[in-house]
């Protein structure tokens, strides 16, 4: 039996903070969780702390932090196509660069 930690904190009806501990679940389970969140909270602004790049590739904006400081803030497609982007570097090191690029392109 797998347990997934999920914290949803509604700031208002329009903005929701989501902390999901899905790093240890398989991709299929993670996909079901993400689909449910998108279907149920589709009209809300989601603030997500993600452990997997797949989780945020279709988001409107990505905030990249390094040592507690903002180093990038843009759409996934803009970040992934920028050769000097730290986000792109993470994508390239993930081992699933092609898949993530396709996801970002579809989300755009």
Instruction: Spell the H/E element sequence.
Output: EEHEHEEHHH
Structural class: alpha+beta
Instruction: Please report the number of helical segments.
Output: 5
Largest beta sheet: what is the strand line-up?
1-2-3
What is the helix content? 25-40%
Q: Sheet bearing the most strands, described?
A: 3 strands, mixed
- How much of the sequence lies in strands comes to 25-35%
Kindly state the number of beta strands: 5
- Residue-averaged pLDDT: 82
Compute the gyration radius: what is it? 14 Å
Uncertain spans, ≥5 residues at pLDDT below 50?
A: 1-6
Overall number of domains: 2
Shape: globular
* Cα distance spanning the termini: 36 Å
Descriptive notes:
There is one protein chain. With 108 residues, the chain is α+β, with helices and mostly antiparallel strands. It folds into two domains: 1-51; 52-108, no CATH class. 39% of the residues lie in helices and 27% in strands. It has helices at residues 27-40, 53-56, 76-80, 86-93, 97-107, and strands at residues 5-10, 15-21, 45-49, 62-66, 69-74. A three-stranded mixed sheet has the order 1-2-3, with no helix packed on it. Strands 4-5 form a two-stranded antiparallel ribbon. Residues 1-6 have low confidence and may be disordered.
């Amino acid at each position: 039996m797998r347990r997934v930690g999920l914290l949803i904190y509604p700031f208002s009806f329009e903005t929701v903070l989501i902390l999901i501990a899905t790093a240890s679940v398989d991709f299929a389970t993670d996909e079901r969780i993400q689909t449910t969140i998108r279907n149920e909270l589709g009209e809300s602004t989601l603030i997500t702390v993600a452990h997997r790049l797949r989780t945020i590739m279709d988001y409107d904006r990505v905030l990249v932090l390094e040592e507690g400081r903002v180093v990038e803030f843009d759409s996934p497609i803009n970040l992934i196509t920028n050769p000097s982007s730290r986000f792109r570097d993470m994508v390239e090191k993930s081992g699933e660069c092609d898949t993530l690029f396709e996801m970002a392109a579809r989300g755009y």
